[in-house]
Amino acid sequence: xxxxxxxxxxxxxxxxxxxxxxxxxxxxxxxxxxxxxxxxxxxxxxxxxxxxxxxxxxxxxxxxxxxxxxxxxxxxxxxxxxxxxxxxxxxxxxxxxxxxxxxxxxxxxxxxxxxxxxxxxxxxxxxxxxxxxxxxxxxxxxxxxxxxxxxxxxxxxxxxxxxxxxxxxxxxxxxxxxxxxxxxxxxxxxxxxxxxxxxxxxxxxxxxxxxxxxxxxxxxxxxxxxxxxxxxxxxxxxxxxxxxxxxxxxxxxxxxxxxxxxxxxxxxxxxxxxxxxxxxxxxxxxxxxxxxxxxxxxxxxxxxxxxxxxxxxxxxxxxxxxxxxxxxxxxxxxxxxxxxxxxxxxxxxxxxxxxxxxxxxxxxxxxxxxxxxxxxxxxxxxxxxxxxxxxxxxxxxxxxxxxxxxxxxxxxxxxxxxxxxxxxxxxxxxxxxxxxxxxxxxxx
Length: 444
Prior knowledge:
The protein has 444 residues and is an alpha/beta fold.
């Protein structure tokens, strides 16, 4: 901890009585009746309090008492989380900070980063003990819509265009959410924001690649004003990223230093609003940069649901897999049979290759696509791996047609067992065509 600040270790109870631990930072000998602020993390399981130490130090040096705490890991994971639960954790921290020496309990508020931008308004709408809220990189959109945009923005910044970013990426997220592996995908923050009565300071970096910085602030303002709250100030910081840290390359790299003027604004704004000097409907700073807009992400139709995707995979497993398995058994029994068409082998092997390769690559893209996209070598705005999968998909479709025509010509001479094997293979090939179209493998 910096030598110019005093650190006090504290414990409090979060949602469900969970024991939580944190640190209060303040200037030694600070005057009594000072404001306090609790910092709420962005996404991440069990994120340590030190993750927000940079912000806490700067805010404390501006005269605030700042509580940072270790984020819960119990009941929170990549696939399971509750913003309501996190909001109750934050309120437990507020209650603790209100009891600390020198703090005016009527001047304690909340600061939330990214995911905290969904959590903090919930907490504020539940408690009059929250005096104000500060939101950084916050979203007024549903989490699934925000996440698909963030990954697409990262890919576009890496130079990707075409079906991978336009179709495959959002459709993978649709299936993930429908399969229950994306927590709170359709949470609508607007009603909660409209229920916030406290003064709001909203901060966005001009080069935010995780929150759509052009779309979000107007939606926030609309929701606040729908609830009758016009005590909000929105500030955009040039050369800043999602967390309002400095970025030298348009949001890809985050430096440790905060955007110039950010900490000063938080310190002065909190002091003003807690002294009754409210600001009304202000938006300041340069226009944010947003190369593309979000797209609605609604619950899927039955044919694009997670179940439908699983059924398609089972069809591929049986249809494409039976062909080589039967061939192997025949070879072991020394009863091999000349294939109806050599193209059948391409349908089987290529179909498997496309299905496994497409999902493998898409999951890789999703894991690296947000902010630091790494699509691999590119050609004309298309990742080489994706182009190879597309070419193989086209080859599989043509091979399916060729195999079907060959079987039709030789149908009378094909043994019954071979007919079953070819029927399964062609069933897989028939399902493969709409599947590949849906995922953009047959589109530019």
